[in-house]
């Protein structure tokens, strides 16, 4: 139990061991723990960030959905109006066309009737003379009665 | 083995044998060599070294630091294994004690505390190795190889006051170094001379403060030494006196010692932290 050089030896050994621990042991674990702490902090931060993003994204998507609904309603409305207009236009056109066709037919009919009347008028004198000839039994001088016959024809 | 030895020698011989160190040093005639008897070891005086406790101390310290470094080099932040978790647990335990007890910035304190705690813990743990296993084998080797009658071989470094006081000495030097560094030489000497009673009571103050200062390393080193020495001595007494009935007694004392072993390592570390913290406090 003598005090001797061992105390110096232990003192030196202690100093060397502490130096070794400071330089080559402690920092290894300090770094690992620091890195883990940072990783966890980053992870929590990222999770919070993700939550914030999710919230804003869902807000965004709701907004867009609302917009889309509005514009879809708008488009349908427009389409309805347009369809109604097209139908109206078509009706209008059909009516005009029908009127036009009807007017054309009317005119043709009138024309036809006039033509028939003119033809009949031309043949009246001939028929009248032939009738008169039958009645009188002789030829009638056409030129002598020309004026009277024309008058008759005009009356028809 | 203990029984056989105890029969062939007196109880006193047995205990003296187990409490002596294997000493290598300078004999009075000037040549260096191993001391073959306790008397020879005593004659060597200061120029001698305890080969057994010094060797175990170095081996344990180096083994623990290299193992920690080995674990540290393979440590990952994301996938810690079982061994890494174990070392990190110790690391954080020490780190927390330091951040609770040490209020200043000093990157030396925490590694210093870790080294002290684990090193002392492991050196103390050697106390739980049955007293005759390694010592007995070493005695056989000593007898047949070196021609000793009873070669001593202590395996618990902290039962050697040289070992415990060697560490306490370093802590003491650090306390003085940091006191002067942080308070200035005047501040450090002022604390010794002008407290607690003011400058007119200087001699009285010195009478109080100098023993207080010197008590720090002494209490550190001798507390550890005393506890472990007493523990080892009781194991030896049980082994020497109780014969066949020693096993239950050994068991009871070993269980009790399981408390003493980490407690003393912890106390040494905590006191070191407290002393160094005081050395960083600004002068009054």
Give a written overview of the molecule.
Chain A is an all-alpha fold and 156 residues long. Chain A has 2 helices and no strands. Chain A is 91% helix and 0% strand. By secondary structure, chain B is mainly alpha-helical. Chain B has one domain (3-280). In chain B, 72% of the residues lie in helices and 4% in strands. In chain B, a hairpin with a 5-residue loop joins strand 1 (23-26) and strand 2. The longest helix of chain B is centred in the last third of the chain and has 40 residues, at 202-241. The radius of gyration of chain B is 22 Å and the shape is globular.
List keywords for this structure.
heterodimer; A: 0% strand; rod-shaped; B: 284 residues; mainly alpha; 10 helices; 4% strand; disordered N terminus
Helical residue percent of chain A? over 70%
Number of domains of chain B: 1
Give the overall average pLDDT of chain A: 90
Strand content of chain A: under 5%
By secondary-structure content and strand pairing, the structural class of chain A works out as mainly alpha
- Overall mean pLDDT of chain B stands at 89
Which strand order do you get reading across the main beta sheet of chain B? 2-1-3
Oligomer: heterodimer
Question: What Rg of chain B do the Cα atoms give?
Answer: 22 Å
> Biggest chain pair contact, residues each?
A-B, 29 and 51 residues
Topology, number of strands of chain A: 0
Low-confidence stretches of chain B: 1-6
- The helix count of chain B comes to 10
Low-confidence stretches of chain A: none
- Counting DSSP E segments of at least 2 residues, the number of strands of chain B comes to 3
């Amino acid at each position: 139990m003598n005090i001797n050089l061992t105390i110096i030896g232990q003192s030196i050994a202690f100093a060397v061991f502490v130096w070794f621990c400071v330089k080559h042991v402690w920092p290894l674990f300090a770094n690992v723990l620091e890195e883990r702490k940072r990783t966890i902090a980053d992870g929590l931060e990222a999770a919070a960030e993700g939550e914030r993003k999710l919230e804003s994204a869902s807000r965004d998507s709701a907004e867009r959905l609302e917009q889309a609904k509005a514009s879809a309603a708008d488009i349908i409305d427009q389409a309805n109006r347009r369809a109604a207009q097209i139908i109206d236009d078509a009706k209008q056109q059909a009516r005009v066309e029908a009127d036009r066709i009807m007017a054309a037919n009317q005119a043709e009919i009138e024309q036809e009737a006039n033509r028939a009347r003119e033809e009949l008028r031309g043949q009246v004198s001939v028929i009248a003379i032939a009738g008169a000839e039958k009645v009188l039994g002789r030829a009638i001088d056409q030129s002598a009665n020309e004026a009277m016959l024309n008058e008759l024809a005009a009356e028809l | 083995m203990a029984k056989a030895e105890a029969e062939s020698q007196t109880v006193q011989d047995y205990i003296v044998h187990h409490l002596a160190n294997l000493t290598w040093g300078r004999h009075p005639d000037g040549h260096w060599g191993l001391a073959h008897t306790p008397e020879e070891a005593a004659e060597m005086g200061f120029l001698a070294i305890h080969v057994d406790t010094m060797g175990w101390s170095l081996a344990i310290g180096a083994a623990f630091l290299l193992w920690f470094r080995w674990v540290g080099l393979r440590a990952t932040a994301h996938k810690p294994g079982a061994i890494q978790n174990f070392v990190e647990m110790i690391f954080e335990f020490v780190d927390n004690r330091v951040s609770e007890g040490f209020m200043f910035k000093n990157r030396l304190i925490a590694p210093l505390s870790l080294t002290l705690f684990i090193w002392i813990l492991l050196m103390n743990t050697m106390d739980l190795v049955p007293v005759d296993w390694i010592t007995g084998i070493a005695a056989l080797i000593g007898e047949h190889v070196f021609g000793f009658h009873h070669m001593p071989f202590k395996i618990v470094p902290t039962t050697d006051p040289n070992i415990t006081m060697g560490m306490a000495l370093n802590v003491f030097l650090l306390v003085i170094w940091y006191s002067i560094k942080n308070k200035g030489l005047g501040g450090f000497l002022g604390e010794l001379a002008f407290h607690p009673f003011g400058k007119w009571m200087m001699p009285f103050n010195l009478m109080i403060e100098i023993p207080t200062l010197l008590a720090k390393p002494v209490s550190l080193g001798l507390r550890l030494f005393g506890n472990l020495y007493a523990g080892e001595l009781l194991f030896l007494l049980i082994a020497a006196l109780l014969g066949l009935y020693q096993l239950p007694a050994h068991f009871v004392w070993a269980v009790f010692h399981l408390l003493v072993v980490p407690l003393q390592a912890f106390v040494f570390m905590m006191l070191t932290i407290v002393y160094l913290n005081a050395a960083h406090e600004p002068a009054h």
